[in-house]
Amino acid sequence: MKIVLVASEVAPFSKTGGLADVTGALPKALFRSGHEVMVFSPAYRGVKAGRALASLSVNVGERVETARLFCRKQDDITFYFIGNPGFFDRDGLYGTTQGDYPDNLERFLFFDRAVLQALTHFGLEPDIIHCHDWQTGLVPVYVRELRKQGTRRRTRTVFTIHNLGYQGRFPGPSFPLTGLSASYFGIEGLEFYGEVNLLKAGLVHADRLTTVSPTYAREIQTPELGFGLDGVLRHRAGDLAGILNGIDTQVWNPMTDKALNPDNYGCESLGGKRRVKVRVAREFGLDASSRPLLAFIGRLSGQKGIELVCAVAERIIELGADLAVLGTGEEVYHRQLQELAGRFPGRVGLALKFDDQLARRLYAGSDILLMPSRYEPCGLGQLIAFRYGSVPVAYRTGGLTDTVVDCEADPENGNGFLFQDYTAAAFSATIATALQKLADEASWKRIVARGMSRDDSWSASAARYVVLYEGLLKNG
Question: 28 Cβ partners below 8 Å, 6+ apart?
Fold first, then answer.
């Protein structure tokens, strides 16, 4: 099959979170399965986009913008980048700490239209166009329009929801910018409580829908986690599949990870992990002692449960452990964490930034990874933690439910710890249980070994996508 992936970020070229890891790893797994794969993404500032191929004129409402097309090959995958300095030569991918860019609708409808024009320009007729998250939600709509016009008849679209909480909602009067007829702006189209909703565009118009774990596929069909779109998703339940994400096990490998040099290690020999712990503790201004090290790595937002981390920080210290937090996000959490670090010097370490190399050392050096996400479509953090021998303590939701086996409920197979009630008390109690297990060295080694021996590579997930693609092409 000829498969095109369309995404607003793709590792290693651009990244704000797990979406980039998925769109960077899945193409390689599909290629290894014998398929021809191309990836389209914006040419943001700092992206080494390769050689220039062509320039195309793209309509954005009543004005015309120029899309410059670039191409580079890496890991046997052809990457195409859509360039436009006015839209993509900016400090951030989607916004700044003050909020999203106000012209994000224009930026990403321009990108979506440019992708389809590029395919036409190069005479490419893919079997599957696989779109990811709201930034690509207009692609299935435009493909459906092209089918009506007699082109793209073979091409089928798949739309993956990575996080239903981010929907790409814009004021209703901006709808004409899309270039679509007014018939699309209705309850069965892009309209959502008077606004334009790009995620809904993908949900309604793609041929098949997927999300990133089986549990999350069920959760988003409920009012609690449907974010207003549960009715749409229940209507399309027969076209919705939950396919668990994997990780790139070549990229995430403690035996070869350059960020850990010279202290690389494997499941059979954890001496390097202990040495990395000493290094990373010092990087966070913590006492590099024998105390347990608990880590939070990720976006500082309510969804990720950082308020629970702040709430239990003092209790973690009382239990005899240290806490290191790496990430950036909402200003209110920056202030709370800075206050905690000030109150507990040498016990609470803080790095308010995105730093991939430091993150790798923290995954490796921590004993326990905290993942109290209020909801978590899949979660890559726990999969990376398993790989690096850090044991997750997580809320029972989404992909965390599908991957973390609770040591209390299933002692023979447990690889982490889950708490059921979304409260600081429940979180704190589960951390205390994990620390009790950590004190039993033999028991803890078994838990670590179970995590490190898991196969969370993309092979199985890619195979499920291939089955979905083939079924879509066969049955329409």
Answer: 75, 76, 77, 248, 458
Instruction: Quote the CA–CA distance of 291 and 299 in Å, as a whole number.
Output: 25
pLDDT band at 18 (very low <50, low <70, confident <90, very high): confident
Q: What is the CATH number of the domain that holds 369?
A: 3.40.50.2000
Task: Say how far apart CA 230 and CA 105 lie, in whole Å.
Answer: 23
Which secondary structure element, helix H or strand E, spans residue 129, and what is its range? Answer: strand 128-132
- Beta-bridged to residue 161, according to DSSP, are 211
Instruction: Give the mean model confidence (pLDDT) for residues 331-357.
Output: 96
Q: Considering its fold, how many domains does the chain have in total? A: 2
pLDDT of residue 349: 98
* 62 plus 180 within the same structural domain: yes
Q: Give the span between the Cα atoms of 476 and 473, in whole angstroms.
A: 5
Does residue 107 belong to any structural domain of this protein? yes
Q: Quick one: which of 104, 117, 119 has its CA closest to 8?
A: 104
Measured from the Cβ of residue 304, the count of other Cβ atoms closer than 10 Å reads: 26
Torsion of CA 401, 459, 163, 106, to 10 degrees: 180
DSSP state of 36: E
Give the CB-side neighbour count of residue 300, counting CA atoms within 13 A: 23
Classify residue 329 by its DSSP letter. Answer: B
pTM: 0.90
Distance CA 373, CA 422 (A): 9
